[in-house]
Design a protein that fits this description.
Blueprint: H1 8-20, H2 23-29, H3 34-48, E1 53-55, E2 60-62, H4 64-91, E3 97-102, H5 104-109, H6 111-121, E4 126-131, H7 134-142, E5 148-151, E6 159-167, E7 169-174, H8 187-190, E8 197-198, H9 203-209, H10 212-215, E9 223-224, H11 227-235, E10 241-244, E11 256-260, E12 268-275, H12 282-296
Parallel strand pairs: 3-4, 3-5, 8-9
Antiparallel strand pairs: 1-2, 5-12, 6-12, 7-10, 7-11
Length: about 300
């Protein structure tokens, strides 16, 4: 099949002639000279390989083939108009979808105000939030199921990343613990046999395990999956723990104390990651900016 070089302007000219059935008036409608307009119609017919118009001294009418072609051209024009309308809706954030994967602590602390502001500004955009550990969050990002992931730990070299915050850690104990009245403590001071931990798959545990003070004191305490369980165990006097700042809302209960860890090297980077090979949509970029603003507030 030979190559066809027909533009939307050519389609406009064809439909104009089909409607007014007069070369001079159709040329005026298209802001062309009559000779330029006639050449354009001739090129369309040459590309089609068939006569599309019956010409007389007084009127121009469509041939049967021209009638069929006119229906197709009108459909193409409508499809193009629909496509551009859809793009404008996306550009003005009238439609679309944004998906974010976030660590549970980030999902609970940062994302509610972020999503509230985003929805107020973009009520037609569908927002999806997945609260998950670092590994599953990055898998979703890798597979294209989310636009961005707010995470920590793991190997992030394949992603484009921004460090949002270097998160401090806190020692959590009951108010009758010997360390409960301290204004701050070192990790070496509290890394004892009654230390309880989150599961090894969590970014909190992985970060703590890399600290020399923790390596010197192998854990003998309980190990749990969820922070709510950890808080309940500490409240019962069954041990202590070290947790990052964003998780402290779990430990706001009677008889629990949260004391800053003063070790400067003990910081958990909270990272906003996105896929290097995929550009963010306009809607996703707006969410990205909201997350950054929340982290820096």
């Amino acid at each position: 099949m030979k190559s066809i070089n027909v533009s939307m302007r050519d389609f406009d000219a064809f439909i104009a002639l089909a409607q007014v059935q007069h070369f001079t008036r159709a040329a005026e409608r298209c802001n062309l000279s009559q000779s330029a307009f006639s050449q354009k119609i001739g090129r369309i017919e040459a590309s089609a390989g068939v006569r599309l118009f019956e010409r007389s001294t007084r009127h121009v009418t469509l041939t049967p083939e021209g009638e069929v072609f006119a229906e197709e051209v009108r459909r193409i024009q409508a499809d193009v108009q629909h496509a551009f309308s859809g793009l404008q809706d996306l550009a003005h954030r009238r439609v679309g979808r944004v998906a974010v994967a976030a660590l549970p602590s980030v999902a609970a602390e940062w994302m509610p105000p972020v999503i509230a502001r985003y929805r107020a500004a973009n009520p037609q955009i569908k927002v999806e939030l997945f609260d998950s550990l670092a590994g599953p969050a990055l898998s979703m990002l890798r597979e294209g199921r989310v636009d961005m992931a707010i995470t920590s730990g793991e190997d992030l070299r394949e992603f484009e990343c921004m460090v949002l915050r270097l998160e401090k850690f806190f020692f959590v104990c009951r108010d009758d613990h010997p360390m409960a009245d301290k204004s701050s403590v070192s990790l070496l001071q509290v890394a004892g046999a009654d230390m309880m931990h989150l599961a090894r798959s969590s970014s909190v545990r992985q970060h703590l395990q890399a600290q020399p003070a923790m390596l010197a004191a192998p854990p003998h305490g309980l190990e749990v999956e969820h922070l709510a369980t950890l808080a309940a165990l500490i409240a019962q006097g069954l041990g202590v723990s070290v947790v990052p700042e964003l998780t402290l809302f779990h430990f706001r209960r009677d008889r629990l104390k949260a004391i800053p860890i003063r070790d400067r090297q003990l910081r958990r980077p909270i990272v906003l990651a996105r896929h290097k090979a995929r550009a963010l949509s306009i809607a996703a970029r707006a969410m990205f900016d909201e997350v950054v603003a929340q982290a820096r507030a």
